[in-house]
Amino acid sequence: EAGVAQSPRYKIIEKRQSVAFWCNPISGHATLYWYQQILGQGPKLLIQFQNNGVVDDSQLPKDRFSAERLKGVDSTLKIQPAKLEDSAVYLCASSLGVGVTGNEQFFGPGTRLTVL
Amino acid sequence: AQTVTQSQPEMSVQEAETVTLSCTYDTSESDYYLFWYKQPPSRQMILVIRQEAYKQQNATENRFSVNFQKAAKSFSLKISDSQLGDAAMYFCAYLGAGNQFYFGTGTSLTVIP
Description:
The complex is a heterodimer of chains A (about 120) and B (about 110). Chain A is mostly beta strands and about 120 residues long. In chain A, about 0% of the residues lie in helices and about 45% in strands. Chain A has strands at about 5, 10-15, 20-25, 30-35, 45-50, 55, 65-70, 75-80, 90-95, 105, 110-115. In chain A, strands 2, 4, 5, 6, 9, 10 and 11 form a seven-stranded mixed β-sheet that branches. In chain A, strands 1-3-8-7 form a four-stranded antiparallel β-sheet, with no helix packed on it. Chain A is globular, with a radius of gyration of 14 Å. By secondary structure, chain B is mainly β. Chain B has a single domain, classed as Immunoglobulins (Immunoglobulin-like). Chain B has no helices and twelve strands. In chain B, strands 2, 5, 6, 10, 11 and 12 form a six-stranded mixed β-sheet that branches. Chain B has a four-stranded antiparallel β-sheet with strand order 3-9-8-7, with no helix packed on it. A two-stranded antiparallel ribbon of chain B has the order 1-4. In chain B, strand 7 (about 60) and strand 8 form a beta hairpin. The radius of gyration of chain B is 13 Å and the shape is globular. The chains are: A mainly beta (about 120), B mainly beta (about 110). At the A-B interface, strand 5, strand 9 and strand 10 of A face strand 6 and strand 10 of B.
């Protein structure tokens, strides 16, 4: 079974530039999550999708961050414009969303973003 | 919002020995899930063990077991017969009715050969 795929793995940009991350969840997983993990901290949920609808985006800085999940499969997370404090690893995770083990999240390798 | 606290930023254990990682959480809910995730240096997080709050029996997965104390809101992870491959960041996580995961700040585990 293929895992959660993310690209790129690393990205370096200057502040005020734009950047986009891509995530392909495990096939059949209805729920998709984007997390921000700042160095030395635990992951913080940015947005959660159920199929192609947003379940929770309460911690997404909507003035600069946006995310979409077209057709309920792949998802992109965009930052425009980036700030220095956006430097972090961005993790994508997916889960079945139903059943006894439906809440187990499977994580991708993450994208490490450095904003200079 | 629920909070998850891991009070040990770093821990070390001798290979083949046992180590316990601590986690406490704050919630007013009665039904929830607790998880321990492992994040090796490659950064891909994997699930170690899961506990449903309504189950009194502590979860066990091979060398990994938990001590779940619901009244004390404590959820510690015990790793027995530690192996070099156990070295990683370990995160405790809470999932409640709001269906949002809350992660602790993590414990970095070093395994000494």
